[in-house]
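In this section we walk through a basic example: taking a raw amino acid sequence and producing a predicted 3D structure, encoded as discrete structure tokens. The instruction is simple. Fold the sequence below.
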Amino acid sequence: MSALVESLRRLFLNGKVTMEKLEHMQKDGKITAEEFFYITKNSTTSELEIGKQENKM
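The resulting token sequence is shown next.
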């Protein structure tokens, strides 16, 4: 995957990029459906909550 997609995945898992933002990027053609799936796959609610909690510290 591209550096952009890898960065978006890290940011998403750390709660810095929202699902809405990724959906918007896909709609605008900035990322493909495959890249969207790669970024969001295996992301559980607990991983997202951990990322959000870490950002509050």
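Looking at the output, two observations stand out. The longest helix spans residues 45-56. Residues 3-56 form one domain. In the next section we compare this with other chains.
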